Amino acid sequence: MSITLSRIEPEIYLAVYKGTITPDEFYLSFQELQQMIHISGDPWHVAIIDTSQLKQLPLDPQLIMQTIPKDRVGTIAVKSPMIAKVIGGIVAKLSKHPIYFYDSMDEAIQQAHALLRQKSA
User: Fold this and answer.
1) Where residue 36 sits, what CATH number does that domain have?
2) How far apart are CA 71 and CA 42, in angstroms?
3) pTM for this structure?
4) What is the domain count for the chain?
């Protein structure tokens, strides 16, 4: 699979996208992430997606919206190609789910902490 998933700290999950991501891989990774979150017992979470090695992403906003669970506080993309930013913007508007774009992992983690603090307040 071209997607690697990990829990980098409580309530913060990282997905690293490499190469070309097929719709099946995209949906399968969502299912795996949901299983990781369930096992960890996190009541909500932030997803950070490292797209620095991404070549192609499924261009279907409906598919992407189906992979945004209600317990996700926000999605943060790091080093996204322009097409991913465009698709992310469409998904954010249609789903009313916040999607942020940053150039560094440090900025992404800071934003994740801010989102989780807001959720806890």
Assistant:
1) 3.30.750.24
2) 9
3) 0.90
4) 1
Q: What count of other Cβ atoms lies within 10 Å of the Cβ of residue 93? A: 11
The parent domain of residue 34 ranges over: 3-120
Tokens read off for 81: 């190609």
Could you read off the pLDDT of 43-82 as tens digits, one per residue? 999 999 999 998 887 777 787 878 888 889 999 999 998 8
How many other CB atoms are there within 10 angstroms of residue 106's CB atom? 10
In the structure encoding, which two tokens stand for residue 90, read together?
A: 């469409």
For 86, half-sphere exposure in the C-beta direction (CA atoms, 13 angstrom radius) is 7
| CB neighbours of residue 60 within 10 Å | 13
**Cα–Cα dist 119/106, whole Å:** 20
Q: How far apart are CA 121 and CA 110, in angstroms?
A: 17
